[in-house]
Amino acid sequence: MSHTSIGISTPATAQRTLPRPTGLWVLLGLLTIMALLPLVASPYALLLMLPFIAYGIALLGFNLLFGTTGLLSFGHALFLGVGAYAAAVLTSKLGVLSFELLLVTAALASGVIALAVGALCVRYTRIFFGMLTLAFGMLFHSFLFKFYGLTGGDQGMRVLRPLLLGMEWRGGKTAFLTGPFYYYALALFALLGLAMWRITQSPFGLHLRAIRENAGKAAYVGVEIFRMRLAAFVISAVYGGIGGVILAVTTGLADPELAYWTHSGNLVFMAVLGGSGSFAGPAVGALAFVVLQDFVMSITQYWRFVMGGTLVLLVVFLPQGLSGAIELFAVRRKERPPHAA
Amino acid sequence: MLSLSNLKVDIEGSHILNGISLSVAAGELVCLVGRNGAGKTTTFRSIMGYRRAQSGSISFDGIDLAKLPTWQIAQRGIGFSPEESEVYADLTVAENIELSTWTRPSGRPAATRIEEAYTVFPKLRQYLARGGAQLSGGERKMVSIARALTLDPKLLLLDEPFEGLSPAIIPLIAEGVASIRAMGKGVLIAESNVHHIPDYVDRIYVLERGEVMFSGPLAEAYRDRAVMRVIAGQIDAVL
Known about the structure:
The structure holds 2 protein chains of 2 kinds. Chain A contains 16 helices and 2 strands. By secondary structure, chain A is mainly α. Chain A has a single domain (51-330), classed as ABC transporter involved in vitamin B12 uptake, BtuC. Chain A has a two-stranded antiparallel sheet with strand order 1-2. The radius of gyration of chain A is 21 Å and the shape is globular. Chain B has one domain (2-231): Rossmann fold (3-Layer(aba) Sandwich). Chain B is 32% helix and 26% strand. Chain B has a 6-stranded mixed beta sheet, sandwiched between helices. A 4-stranded antiparallel beta sheet of chain B has the order 2-1-4-5, covered by helices on one side. Mean pLDDT of chain B is 85; it is low at 234-239. The A-B interface holds A 1, 5, 8-9, 12-13, 15-16, 203, 206-207, 209-210, 212-214, 216-225 and B 48, 50, 69-71, 73-75, 80, 82, 86, 88-92, 94-95, 98-100, 102-104, 125-131, 134, 147, 151.
């Protein structure tokens, strides 16, 4: 970035407009490919894409907290659990089958719980925030695990097939999941992606980035740190809840493992894998994680070992994640011609 | 507008401010002069709520600032440019400057306030897309002051705005300060070098070991040998 002082103004403004939309375009490009996938891919591959969509949505929220605000939560699976159990309670206990109602309820429940949990957690940062979120996540897991009568304990709760836009699908389960549900979830992903893009580019997003860099500085510029962090926490929880509903409908089950800390760890893994510094990074990470896990699990029972090794290599050699590596590669390619000449 | 009365601040048991009283009225340019360690920065940090006073009061437009959190003090209309500038490295110059328009809605549109900041420091227009980490010390200082200005404050606190800057940059900052004052805002500057004090300053307070040893017009300070020994010190011992 060494410009001469004369040529600054024009390339500088061009730079400002160019890289900005890329994050959104990468995400929308990815979703477009996903939309065409049913034309070529097997039902198995499509079923694999549903967890990706669920995690992708959850990670959009997770990264508002982690990448944008600088708060690393180790208990974010809590909200996937809330979403999944909201879907389970509504469909199998209360007989509510409208998918839209499931989404709204899960979003509201996650938001309300996040408001209470966040009000305590966001007063702290770094490891203290991480440990507190971990504690709340495990608290919720214990609740799901122990209150057998209410939650089904380790058996979990069944999640019935919902009605999409009030319409019932009479075909088989796979046909439902890879057909209408797949497109519905994908459209939701795109919509929530657009919304998150607006959020990160808004003044609110600017506040969050200022807080991430230095909360002390942000205060005397008039940034209300607590309220902004709490808002980010609640928004990220709502995204987590919606992701949880999709995950639960896909598997047809809400079980306590969804809220277990290793599941939270997976979310962190995905964000790091894809690169939390970029908008689409965590979504890319979710895709890579889901595909990698499926592949490694199919060839060895020691898949956790391989996943752990991958994480080590990643942190050491690609601290910016996959998206960071791609960016670096693109920049190097761009810079090469002048060097050659 | 701003009034400190008998302010005492301790840091880890040692008395840093020993009962400071000063005031800045709307539209006034006031300078706090003193050697390093005299308590200028502590005074500013106390006004902004980073330090809590042992006793004494800080009031702004009739409101006691002592119990307010920093962000509320900023939102009441005090813009602060700290000694180290503290520009956001991760944000661009444009983002640094527009940030404060969102934190304090003031009835005047954001675009006007941003435009005003660029009028004060026209040079910044060339760096809009640059990251805060890619600026020189002088540029960071301008961004820092511009950011405090877009808050649309009634009062600006500028901590050592000329400290460590190249002689080529100092006039740009000085012009900026002059045009900020021309807007009718109150300005309180902390300065260790008496030669950097603008001659149109309304009043100076000389701070020595946490106490105000002189307050009055600059010309009067120049006539006071004891005062000059403190603020011109080693530099021109001839005086």
